[in-house]
Write a structure and sequence with these properties.
By secondary structure, this protein is mainly alpha-helical. It is built from nine helices and no strands. α2 packs antiparallel against α3 and α7 crosses α9.
Length: about 200
């Protein structure tokens, strides 16, 4: 599907500035495939590109009123937003918190630590908990970087979802979705490792 003429895109952006949801839907349908392709070239991972695109369209919705046709063509303006969101995602991924079995020694995951240190447990129980920690760390490493970071901040650093969203400079709904999906992937991964 060819991208509509700049005049049409401009008209949709003007309507979006007035909170016109139909115009937003039309703009999304007309431009998302091309903008997604651009995000994917930067991020290389489909999931990361989808998230950058989602964040970009939230930005487009929120800042359509500030768009000035005299400064940039509509597609150029939107591509710049996508590029910035994709580069932000790359920067966050570079600073993602890595969790491995050693990370369970201090800080978060207090219940696991207490269970390992409990005098009521024998060496076999400690070995089982150690294997469980290693399995969890292995599954955790398989998560996408931003999801891993959000979960680590929420559970390892005991931050609320709102605090994680503020730290990552992301919408609260995105963070909640990442944490929910990440925990589900951890559950599935751990279930596979428990099978004989």
């Amino acid at each position: 599907m060819a991208t509509p003429e700049p005049q049409q895109l401009n008209a949709w952006l003007n309507a979006i500035a007035r909170q016109d949801r139909q115009a937003f839907r039309l703009l999304y349908e007309a431009t998302a495939p091309k903008l997604f392709g651009y995000a994917l070239r930067i991020l290389t991972k489909r999931e990361a590109a989808e998230e950058a695109l989602q964040e970009s369209f939230i930005s487009i919705w929120n800042s359509a009123g500030s768009y000035q046709a005299s400064l940039a063509a509509p597609m150029t303006w939107m591509t710049t937003i996508v590029r910035n969101k994709a580069l932000d995602a790359l920067r966050r991924a570079d600073h993602a918190i890595e969790i491995d079995a050693e990370s369970f020694k201090d800080g978060g995951m207090q219940s696991m630590i207490e269970a390992m240190e409990s005098p009521m447990r024998g060496p076999g129980d400690a070995l089982q908990l150690s294997e469980s920690a290693a399995a969890l760390a292995n599954c955790f490493r398989q998560l996408q970087g931003l999801h891993r970071q959000a979960i680590a901040m929420a559970f390892y650093h005991d931050l609320s979802h709102q605090e994680v969203a503020e730290q990552m400079r992301l919408p609260l709904g995105t963070v909640k979705t990442w944490i929910r999906r990440g925990l589900e992937r951890l559950r599935v991964c751990l279930a596979k490792q428990e099978r004989p």
